[in-house]
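Changelog-adjacent note: as of this version, every example in the card shows the full chain rather than a window. The one below runs 221 residues end to end.
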Amino acid sequence: MRILIAEDDPRIAASLGEALAASGYLIENEADGEMAWYRGDTEAYDAVVLDLGLPNLDGLTVLKRWRKAKRSVPVLILTARGQWEERVEGMEAGADDYVVKPFHVEEVVARLRAILRRAGGLASSRIDIHDLVLDTRLMQVLRDGVPIPVPPQEYRLLSFLAHRRGQVVSRMEITEHLYSQDFERDSNSVEVLVGRIRKRLGEHVVKTRRGFGYYVEDDAG
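Full-length structure tokens:
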């Protein structure tokens, strides 16, 4: 899943990026408010970690512009501003959660997971897919309680589809959320990953709607 970190402190951006990448997310960074607004307005992200104190355009204005333009990407505000009035202002502007600096990166990762679950209509970090369980906290796939080794990119694709259970997702959308901009994308890369998942976990796990895309069924069974 593709996450934009809009943070102008390079140390904070680096520590967050490292922790989120280790949790299986595809990370992109932006330190400028204007550029953060533009990227969030024109590119597809699963969530944004947004600092309010960005240069050139503050984070609150960035968020308000996104919401005015009907951009519904989940946003976690990250800021040194701790007054309750500012927290309320951020939430009223359309933020999904709020973390005050200094913070522990583990808390940010946990809150981001919760935001993504809510966006997908999920109440738990464990997602049932037929006879499998996808544990998004441990980044594991289990069958009958036994972990199945799944390479990172296959896990990312399965997790992305699982968070959109019951929705058909096009190959282009999967590519946008699975690969960074500078990655040289093979036109068949998604089909290859789906084929590997089916071989590893079963043909029934990821379904195809011919001409439209791929999906994971909404109900287990």
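Structural remarks: The longest strand covers residues 2-6.
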